[in-house]
Amino acid sequence: MRNTGTAIPEILTLLPRMVFPMDRLTPEQRSANMAAVRFKNTRPELIVRRLLHGLGYRYGLHAANLPGRPDIVLRKRQSIVFVNGCFWHGHTCPRGIPPSSNIEFWWPKINKNRLRDRRVRQELKRQGWRVLTVWECETKDTARLQRQLCRFLRANRFLSRRRKGRKPQLVARSL
Ligand SMILES: [Zn+2]
Question: Residue 49 in contact with residue 60, Cβ under 8 Å?
């Protein structure tokens, strides 16, 4: 370790650029970058996960080998749950409305996310998955959300009986 005395400060001078490249962007550029990233482990997602866990369901997370890298994958039930932020994914609720002062900036980005979400859902369904989208605003009322999750997953249980033998084409790696 004797010769690292000078090397460490050199590395440290590089770190801010390596770790925080977005700090050199304008606020608008940064926001656009953030919009392109699907947030993981958000508070709404943790609420859904806690409810599912409490109901006795087991799931995989952020399955990178499935279209759209779904947040929650319940493989035994051929089911996928997305937990979407109302703003980034363009929900038709008050939280999903872009600021009117800058609507021309936000609208194309949000619309792009919506179109991508729709494509992803269609592709997953084509592969035999059932898909539920839970919106951020729906995680406020946990009792209602719990009923919604139960309905969705019970329906899937009956569905998978009817479709016995038909398996999803892809299996989530994290399960
Ligand atoms: Zn909403």
Answer: no
Number of domains in the chain: 2
* Pair (63, 121) in one structural domain: yes
42, 127: one domain? yes
60 within a domain of the structure (yes/no): yes
Q: CATH number for the domain including 52?
A: 3.40.960.10
In the structure, ligand 1 is a single-atom ion and the residues with CB under 5 Å from it are 86, 91, 93, 95, 135, 137
For ligand 1, the distance from its centroid to the CA atom of residue 76, given in whole angstroms, is: 29
Ligand 1 centroid–CA 141 distance in Å is 12
Give the domain extent around 67. 38-162
Which tokens go with 167? Answer: 């398996």
Amino acid at 168: P
- Model-level pTM? 0.68
d(CA 69, CA 119): 13
C-alpha of residue 89 to centroid of ligand 1, in Å: 9
Domain presence at residue 169: no
Per residue of the chain (175 residues), what is the pLDDT tens digit?
444 444 444 444 443 333 333 344 455 555 554 544 456 678 999 999 999 999 999 999 988 899 999 999 999 999 999 999 999 999 999 988 888 888 888 889 999 999 999 999 999 999 999 999 999 999 999 999 999 999 999 876 655 555 555 555 444 444 3
Cα distance between residue 37 and residue 51, in whole Å: 25
